[in-house]
């Protein structure tokens, strides 16, 4: 009887371990995080709209230090990458992804962070 109880205890521990591991995998798959969203620049957004957005957001709404020279998100040095960072920072701050027809942002569920550049996510 003692052996049977010992086996049952080990079986229960093993089942709990498997269930726990599967639950963790469902919460974070690659760069997806359950219940988290990011706002980035639309691939077809016009550069002039993105520049206007950067000018507006970086001086009044958000801290754009990370996309300045020497910042962790300065590279790549293109308008869409910098605008994506700014859109996401605004989204995290306000919960609003600028996604009207003439605007530039859309919501994604894959973390766009890369290298040392971290995009904080917005929990839904």
Automatic annotation (TrEMBL):
Entry coiled-coil feature ranges: none
Keyword Signal listed: yes
Pfam family, one: X8
Signal peptide from the UniProt entry: 1-21
Keywords from the UniProt entry: Signal
Domain X8, chain residue ranges per copy: 37-119
Gene Ontology CC entries for this record: plasmodesma
SMART domains found in the cross-reference section: X8
Gene3D superfamilies, alphabetized: 1.20.58.1040
InterPro entries attached to this UniProt entry: X8, X8_dom_prot
Family matches, as PANTHER family: BETA-1,3 GLUCANASE (PTHR31044), CARBOHYDRATE-BINDING X8 DOMAIN PROTEIN (PTHR31044:SF147)
Name of the protein: X8 domain-containing protein
């Amino acid at each position: 009887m003692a052996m049977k109880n010992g086996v049952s205890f080990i079986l229960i521990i093993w089942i709990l371990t498997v269930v726990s591991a599967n639950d963790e995998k469902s919460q974070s798959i690659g760069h997806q995080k359950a219940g988290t969203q990011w706002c980035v620049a639309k691939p077809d957004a016009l550069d002039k709209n993105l520049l206007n957005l950067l000018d507006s957001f970086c001086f009044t709404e958000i801290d754009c230090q990370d996309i300045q020279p020497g910042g962790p998100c300065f590279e790549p040095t293109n308008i869409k990458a910098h605008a994506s960072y700014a859109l996401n920072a605004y989204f995290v701050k306000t919960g609003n992804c600028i996604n009207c027809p003439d605007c530039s942002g859309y919501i994604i569920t894959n973390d766009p962070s890369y290298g040392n550049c971290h995009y904080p996510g917005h929990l839904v």
